[in-house]
Design brief:
The chain is mostly helical and 96 residues long. It is built from four helices and no strands.
């Protein structure tokens, strides 16, 4: 994850990915960043795998099993929170 990624950047990237994986039309008025991704059928089990791979590749975050079963991992906003908390707990390795 880039140190310049904001919460909004993370959410936007996740939304674009989910829309692509789930083939969600831009005109779908029921879909937003707080929509339940799995219970509503926006993503299926293969979609979850693809989304997890995207998160690992794009943000450099390896999600542990407890994070995959975290209640926040059901919406784009929640997944963005998980990613942001990963970044917050990483030790700073840059120079001062």
């Amino acid at each position: 994850m880039s140190t310049t990624d904001t919460q909004a950047d993370i959410r936007a990237a996740l939304e674009a990915c989910v829309r692509d994986i789930g083939r969600i039309a831009p005109t779908d008025t029921h879909f937003d960043q707080r929509s339940e991704l799995f219970d509503t059928g926006y993503l299926d089990s293969l979609g979850i795998v693809a989304l997890t791979a995207f998160v690992e590749q794009r943000f450099g975050v390896t999600l542990a099993d407890d994070q995959l079963f975290d209640p926040r991992f059901t919406t784009i906003a929640g997944i963005a929170d998980i990613i942001a908390s990963h970044a917050a707990t990483r030790p700073h390795t840059g120079s001062a």
